[in-house]
Amino acid sequence: MNDAVMTGGKGAATAAARPADPCCLVIFGASGDLTHRLLLPALYNLAVDGLLPRAFALIGVARTASSNEAFAADLEASLPKFATRNVDREAVKKVLGCVAYIQGEPDDDATYAKLARELERIERERGTKGNRLFYLATPPAGFAPIGCHLGQSGLARQENGAWRRVVIEKPFGTDLASAQALNRKLLGVLDEDQIFRIDHYLGKETVQNILVLRFANGLFEPIWNRHHIEHVQITVAESLTVERRGGYYDATGALRDMVPNHLLQLLSLIAMEPPSRFAADAVRAEKAQVLDAIQLSDRAEALRNAVRGQYGDGFVDNIPIEAYRKAPDVKPDSTTETYVALKLMIDNWRWANVPFYLRTGKALRAKQTEVAIKFKQAPVAMFRDMPVDRLAENFLVIGIQPKECIGLEFNAKIPGPSIKIRGVGMTFKYEDYFDAAPSTGYETLIYDCMIGDAILYPRADAIEAGWRVVQPFLDAWREAKDQGLAIYRAGGDGPKEADDLLNRDGRHWRPIT
Ligand code: BG6
Asked: Is 508 known to be catalytic?
């Protein structure tokens, strides 16, 4: 992450950032969606902002037949479709000035021999100093074989002052055992500090801002604990359906797709202890530690503290939506969940008895990602002789998307001769203060990897701690088969059972709007 000097006022944050180290970026799975939709536009934005290395080259590796020229032309042609800013020829040249393509199978030695030759040639001609960033943008089955080949072939060996780093896309494993196995394999051939496990939620400005909100202000930390906070709600609602991702999604489900990664990343930023320094090791250690403190459920608790649902027919924004089971590549009797709500407890001094309620789902009323922190209620007794029967609740709401904001909800007196009280709000909106150019969310993540800053990348221990939390729910649901799977109407708020999860504790979800 860049150092920033704040001088106040709209657009006054000055990023004191330098171009990243010279390097060659090797993308495995280069013909895929991720490369075109996100990686290339992010590289382009880095070039426009002067952050891309001055000496830079791009090598694509994929199964499909292509050539250096055809691959470069394909990338150039796709950029205007996905770029978040106007495309300028000079900046395109900085990204695509040196492009090569290698056709090969991920598990074939010959691919890596070809890659070695191409890297040596480009490093000589382009002056990228031997620094290599390998980006695994393949389906997950490719992660272990590619990682192992890179390690065993020596292509990822750090030597003569050159760095070699490997970015792994999600999902990192499909359960605890497979995540542990993948970590073991990768750590057998690479050092932990060479492995960058990406979670695109950490590329979001509003997510990164949680650390600043908590630790750069004297205001919140003293009350950020069980004495003042009553419960926390983390919502990642999507109005999108599974669209064309039925094949992947039906084998995955909402729990695996969203919780061990994105939702638990949000939880760990909210719940972690203050790190001793704003540096990768200190921050990552605290994040892993708080995940490790989440109470693990037995089967009965897992069933009691989790709700799973699947969307049926309905309407999102007045557009008819067909039930999940009718989506392409989804089994007609699928029991895969498209919605999950969980109640988690953290066993430590800060959070004992403060429930963290998490929910995420597809085909809901609206897209809304937010963290809402509910503070304890003021005693109403003082107002007992006034016409006040209920005080509004005190929430601090961190809006992550689409509204990027922080709001505080509190009580105020309605003007007039008698004491009447109403809930009101104060909201800080990012757009009122900062002119951020539209981005893909991958810029900071790629740049950080190029400068060797792993602060936004979860370590092996945090990944495994996340799966350890989720595993009891996976096990309980596997045994329960379709029992307890609630069908909810597309375009609604999710299953009623999710409301019951909070209602039985005397609480309710914030509305999805
Ligand atoms: C991805 C999931 O990791 O995150 C998708 O695989 C989901 O299913 C997406 O739609 C949500 O990301 P965002 O940034 O739109 O909230």
From this structure: no
Phi-psi sector, 207: left (phi>0), alpha (psi -120 to 50), beta: alpha
For residues 100 and 264, give the distance between their C-alpha atoms in angstroms, rounded to a whole number: 38
**C-beta 393 within 6 A of ligand 1:** no
Q: Is 112 exposed, middle or buried (0-12, 13-18, 19+ CB in 10 A)?
A: buried
State which residues of the chain have pLDDT below 50: 2-14
Contact 24, 133 (CB under 8 A): yes
Find the 362 Cα to ligand 1 centroid distance in Å.
10
What φ, ψ does residue 462 adopt, rounded to 5°? -70, -40
Q: Does residue 199 have its Cβ closer than 6 Å to ligand 1?
A: no
Q: What is the distance between the alpha carbons of residues 224 and 269, in angstroms, rounded to a whole number?
A: 12
How many secondary structure helices (H) and strands (E) does the chain include? 17, 18
| Token pair recorded at residue 441 | 């969310």
Select which of 149, 227, 262, 508 is catalytic.
262
Tens of pLDDT, residue by residue over 43-92, are: 999 999 999 999 999 999 999 999 999 999 999 999 999 999 999 999 99
What angle separates helix 264-271 from helix 280-292, to the nearest 10 degrees?
100
238 Cβ below 6 A of ligand 1: yes
